[in-house]
Amino acid sequence: PPFFGPLLSPRLIAVVFRPIALGGLPAMWIWAAALGLIIAITVWHLATTPAAAAVVFLLGIGLGLAALIGNISDLFIPGYVLLWRFRAHPQVGALIGVMGVAKLIPFVFVGYLVSRRDFKALGWCVIGAALALAVTVIGAGLDNTLSYIGVARDAVPQPSSLPYLTGLRWLDLRMTSIGDDG
Length: 182
What we know:
Layout (H helix, E strand, L loop, with lengths): L11 H35 L3 H20 L6 H10 L6 H11 L6 H7 L3 H22 L1 H13 L7 H5 L16
Helix pairs in contact: 1-2, 1-6, 3-4, 4-6, 6-7
């Protein structure tokens, strides 16, 4: 306070951010540079055709801002690419599980796995989520991990969010929010 509120994201993010916080400003710059590099490599990998280059051009400002902000969601950009590229492999379920424990929104892909009746990928999703949850409990502690339920339930929408602007509280799923974790 007054500039920062509670961490609204699931606790795995706190585990990831702990070494960055302990490393101070140099660690923050290294983290931001690493994420910027990851985004740049992902874009370079995707923009191999004129159509792909046009899409990158249209998304350029958003990708550039993502590269500068240092939000954990930046890792989801290559994650989503991997989900698409390897969608036929059941092991992508593990990636969905890990991403879902880091931020809840990737769990929407479970619906995709169910619709495909891809039970192997669902199994991998459970394994990935269980491993990420174990890392969360080990790194943040069981009490902090369980406290997320209360934080998510009691948090109010941010003024720039769709639930706040529309007054439709049910839209506030605590899944994503710009700036909630970095």
